[in-house]
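Sat 14:20. Reprocessing the chain from the morning session after the first attempt stalled halfway. Input below, unchanged.
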Amino acid sequence: MQLYHSPTTPFGRKVMVLILELGLANQVEVIDVMGTPLSPGSLPVDHNPLGKIPALVCDDGRVLYDSRVICRYLNDLDGAALYPPAPKLWETLTLEATADGMLDAGILVLYEGRLRPADKQFPDWIEAQWLKIARGLDVIESDWTEHLNGPLDMAQIAVGCLLGWLDFRLDARNWRAGHPKLAAWQAEFAKRPAMRATIPRAV
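Finished this time. Tokens:
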């Protein structure tokens, strides 16, 4: 299998953490790519019409994209339990979707500052996107601590990658303020070998 990936993408990091946690590294060739919506560069537009990463080319030639689809596929391929049976499954999927939605908002914040000329940036839009993240942090802090401290699942990986990306790209926002339980959980979760091996780096 071939995985189109970038060392800075939090969505690709989710997939890489899963691969390492499940011991699948020898089954996946990682192809580093880079680009933006304005300049696709080496992004896999031939494999994913959206031009987004990660994208996985399977051994049978099919192409899967969106990190949640890829993670479900690899989990099922390995017969693993990072997506537990229902009814716990619905909690896992909901928390994973929450983390991914917060990342979507964060990337819009990042792109607004990086891709738009200064005179065309919209501060109210930036703050509206950050508010989505802030609300998500509050909800995870108040409602999801028990889940985060349970058996490893894909939701935990998604939240860990989200928080690592906030440190990497939006550290000035100081997500830890007002979220002591989440900060304590992240400090421990970040010690996992798969998380340490996939820390995002600037390219």
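The domain at 2-78 is CATH 3.40.30.10 (Glutaredoxin).
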